[in-house]
Amino acid sequence: MQAASPRDANALRLREFAFGEEDFQALRALVKSLTGIHLSEQKRELVYGRLTRRLRTLQLRSFAEYRERLKKDAQEVAELCNAITTNLTSFFREPHHFQYLRDHVLAPLAADRDGTRRLRIWSAACSTGEEPYSIAMTVLEALPDAARWDVRILATDLDSEVLHRARRGVYPAERTGNLSAQRLQRFFSDRQEAGGLCRQIVPEVAGLVTFKQLNLIHALPMRGPLDVIFCRNVVIYFDKDTQRELFFRVARLQRPGDLLFLGHSESLFKVCDSYALIGKTIHRRI
Questions:
Q1: CATH at 187
Q2: Fewest CB atoms less than 10 Å from the CB: which of 82, 85, 229, 278?
Q3: In this structure, are 130 and 234 located in the same domain?
Q4: Number of domains the chain contains
């Protein structure tokens, strides 16, 4: 076994709580079974850093006590999942996906006066809501008569805390700094909160989105068909077997021609052959 570096040894001495191999292995196994997230050895310090906050909150003395608490406290299991999941997001992140949605899905629908007026979109890891609200804004911009359409955007996430923030739809002004003046004027209203200027999603946008808690490694309750699925920057945390199981179930919710958007570092290579790659992380159901 390789000896710890002086820097690592110093970090161990400075730790508030002992965090041994048994603690890490037990917690990573529990997280994998609960969420599908594979925590590599490189995530050891991340796990320690995020869960020490829970130990302080619960006034526990050790990770051994915390592990015992998890065996009998369902609410703390939920807090564990919330603490471990990553929620990095922004409005119109990876903008080429929204441009493709506008030009190749919404524009043809708008031009087809005799076609269907039904549209179903799923944001599978919606975090604090920026992604589904960006989808809704794109829909409203592309469909001038969107009120006459049957449009539903389902937004799901495992983390109950970020879903609460998403439903509220209020963001610090700096979180909307990448949006144009036109979008800010149309889709947000300004409000003052304790932290300063905030912007709130207007009802026209919020009304298109329904937020639900969903664990992607469990059975998917929606019936489909889903015209478009955004499943971005989440399966990177799953191992290949978990990815295969997920996309087997996802593919059953879509018809040939429906679209699946993945994150910038994600791929279906050797994972799922139900889709064809047609653009940068853009896949079409075959």
A1: 3.40.50.150
A2: 278
A3: yes
A4: 2
Pairing of strands 170-172, 196-201: antiparallel
Of 28, 93, 120, 157, catalytic: 157
Strand pairing partners for 209?
153
157 assigned to active site: yes
Residue range of the domain that includes 242: 95-285
Q: Give tens-digit pLDDT for 126-143.
A: 999 999 999 999 999 999
Q: Is the dihedral of CA 67, 71, 73, 75 positive or negative?
A: positive
Given 84, 116, 144, the domain boundary residue is 84
| Catalytic (active site) residue 244 | no
Mean residue pLDDT of the chain comes to 92
Catalytic residue among 44, 50, 183, 244, which?
Answer: 50
CA trace torsion 68, 47, 160, 168 (10° rounding): 140
162 plus 267 within the same structural domain = yes
Structure letter (DSSP) for residue 102:
I
Does the reported pTM lie above 0.70? yes
Looking at the fold, whether 68 and 106 belong to one and the same domain comes out as no
